[in-house]
Amino acid sequence: MNRRLTVLLAAGALAPALAAPVASAKTNVAVGIGDQNAAMFADANFKALKIKKVRYFIPWNAARNAAELNKADAYVAAARKAKARVFFHISTDDFTPKKAKLPSTSQYKREVGKLIKRYRAKGVKEWGVWNEANHKSQPTWDNPSRAAGFYRQMRTMCKGCTILALDVLDQAGDSRYISRWFAALPRSIRTSSSLRVGIHNYSDTNRKRSTGTSRIIKAVKQRNRRASFWLTETGGVANFGRAFPCDLKRQANRTAYMFTLAKKHRRDVDRLYAYSWSGGDCSSVFDAGLTDQNGKVRPAYSTFKSKAASFAR
Predict the structure, then answer these.
(1) For the residues 109-126, what does the mean pLDDT come to?
(2) In the prediction, which pLDDT does 24 show?
(3) CA separation (Å) from 209 to 201, 255, 305?
(4) Residue 77: pLDDT above 90?
(5) I need a surface site. Which of 173, 185, 217, 284 has the fewest CB within 10 A?
(6) Helix crossing, 211-221 with 174-183: angle to 10°?
(7) d(CA 150, CA 145)
(8) Over pLDDT 90: what percentage of the chain?
(9) Is the dihedral of CA 194, 122, 68, 156 positive or negative?
(10) Residues whose CB is less than 8 angstroms from the CB of residue 260 and which lie 6 or more positions away in sequence, other chains included
(11) Each residue of 15-47: pLDDT tens digit?
(12) How far apart are CA 279 and CA 237, in angstroms?
């Protein structure tokens, strides 16, 4: 065998070994699921996804409500049994647009402080200051300075926790809200390297674009270039009013695009929480479930499972 042929054969033998790491490389965005239903953890289809991060939103004053505490307790217990890490996101107790009570910072400290004490004891160390703060269904929708005040309270109440400082929906005016939120904070907090911002990018995901996600990231990084991001709520919708009438094929297609967006922004985005596991029968105003009202998986589930395989957990 001549020398040239020997070299070529050796190179050919090495090629698969060299290519293997590239082929198996994962996108370093951790995939999780947001849902309010503890039964999710017992579902074999959920288990097959090997999800290790889950999101649960809880009313800011849930400590006053035994039913809310019981639901949250059950969820945390089921997640712990499944070895899944829970991210608790503080939210309103009334989703009626522009009608919910906005707590004072002292009320927030008192009520949310009770939740932190209760659930840190149960292993919950990841907290979001306020869910979708700029949307009209939340009392913070027109008060970014109050949302900033809540962040300052969370920092003092939950030392050592992983805190999502701000959470916004990709909608008109999101950059202005972000600007006002930053302006309400002292420089030492505004420029912190631990600052995390959540994005709900339904509009981008379901219209197959990236303008809102890019705009929010740009608005934040203009004020803190070290900030990181979580896609805290996203997904292909099965049904959403007149804009997105019930279409399970479209939902699966947009679920695939959700992963495309996450991969595009992988340098800035650390996590993706798809919403949700539990769906309905497309008669509700909003339905983004990977399963229907009977627990049967939808086409979007198969898409999710396939695409998530190349992402971190």
Answers:
(1) 98
(2) 57
(3) 10, 13, 22
(4) yes
(5) 173
(6) 20
(7) 9
(8) 90
(9) negative
(10) none
(11) 444 444 444 589 999 999 999 999 999 999 999
(12) 10
Q: Do the beta carbons of residue 179 and residue 219 sit within 8 Å?
A: yes
pLDDT on residue 282: 84
Check residue 312 and give its pLDDT. Answer: 97
Dihedral angle, C-alpha 105, 110, 115, 118, nearest 10 °: 150
Residue 38 gets which letter from DSSP?
G
Amino acid making up residue 287: D
Query: Are 34 and 271 within 8 A, CB to CB?
Result: no
Q: Which amino acid appears at position 20 of this protein?
A: A
Task: Tell me phi and psi for residue 167, to 5 degrees.
Answer: -140, 120
Q: What are 120-129's pLDDT values in tens digits? A: 999 999 999 9
Give the type of residue at 5: L
Return the axis-axis angle of helices 66-81 and 105-120, rounded to nearest 10°. 40
Residue ranges per structural domain of the chain: 29-312
pLDDT digits (tens, 9 = 90+) for 247-278: 999 999 999 999 999 999 999 999 999 999 99
Cβ count near 69 (within 10 Å): 17
Class of the CATH-defined domain 29-312: alpha beta
Task: Count CA atoms within 13 Å of residue 79 on its CB side.
Answer: 28
In whole angstroms, give the CA distance from residue 173 to residue 144.
Answer: 12
CA distance 211 to 213: 6
